[in-house]
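hiii so um. not sure if this is the right channel but i have a protein structure encoded as tokens and i wanna go backwards to a sequence. like what aa goes where. can anyone help
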């Protein structure tokens, strides 16, 4: 299969959309009044969580370039979880800014 290539505005906008979609899914879990997110699994029953990094790890986008943006922010959340143990939702929101 041929590789898709995007440049300039088209690439930037697609990556930005991916970052925004991931941040929007994670944002609702922020703080003590954060809401739960239900994650569909390909096997077993759905998972309910309020953990930002868990939500980020499960987001997969259909558009290749949008998913690339989401993967970059997912890495931010994972590194924050590994280094600090908390603050993954805040790090994700800050990455979108």
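sure thing!! here u go:
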């Amino acid at each position: 299969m041929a590789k898709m290539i995007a440049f300039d505005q088209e690439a930037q906008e697609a990556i930005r959309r991916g970052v925004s979609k991931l941040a929007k899914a994670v944002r609702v879990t922020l703080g003590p009044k954060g809401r739960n997110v239900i994650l569909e699994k390909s096997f077993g029953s759905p998972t309910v969580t309020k953990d930002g990094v868990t939500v980020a790890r499960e987001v997969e986008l259909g558009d290749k370039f949008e998913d690339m943006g989401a993967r970059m922010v997912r890495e931010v959340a994972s590194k924050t979880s590994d280094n600090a143990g908390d603050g993954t939702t805040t790090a994700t929101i800050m990455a979108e800014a």
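oh and Residues 11-19+37-96 form one domain.
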